[in-house]
Specification:
There is one protein chain. The protein has 132 residues and is mainly β. The chain is 11% helix and 58% strand. A hairpin with a 2-residue loop joins β8 and β9.
Length: 132
């Protein structure tokens, strides 16, 4: 339940390069780097409700650990996959619908931050969130 609460983006590492690897055009990359993302997470056992609010959209996501679901990134990229707990980390394994390539994501609490790590085609990015 450590993930519960509202988290606001504080900083990112290599996020623009990650978006470039994902095929996001330069204009959307520039906007995405300054999206003011806020994530609200509520965990109830194996069920999660996540609200993502940014400059561009607000999205409510519900998922159960280990159960596949569909998700659409802010740039419109469609994914299918699932989240699982590995120790104290939330680990997401997703497949792009357009090209079948894998995208992985990790969420973990490090100190007083939520650290979200993305990996696609060998390019890793991290986004750091503070409780808001």
């Amino acid at each position: 339940m450590a993930f519960n609460g509202t988290w606001k983006i504080d900083r990112s590492e290599n996020y623009e390069k990650f978006m470039e690897a994902m095929g996001v055009n330069v204009m959307k990359r520039k906007l995405g780097a300054h999206d003011n993302l806020k994530i609200t997470i509520q965990q109830d056992g194996n069920k999660f409700t996540v609200k993502e609010s940014s400059t561009f959209r607000t999205l409510d996501i519900e998922f159960t650990l280990g159960v596949n679901f569909e998700y659409s990134l802010a740039d419109g990229t469609e994914l299918t996959g699932s989240w699982n707990m590995e120790g104290s980390k939330l680990v997401g394994t997703f497949t792009r619908k357009d090209n079948g390539k894998a995208l992985t994501a990790h969420r973990e609490i490090v100190g007083d931050e939520l650290v979200q790590t993305y990996l696609y085609e060998g390019v890793e990015a991290k986004r750091f969130f503070k409780r808001g």
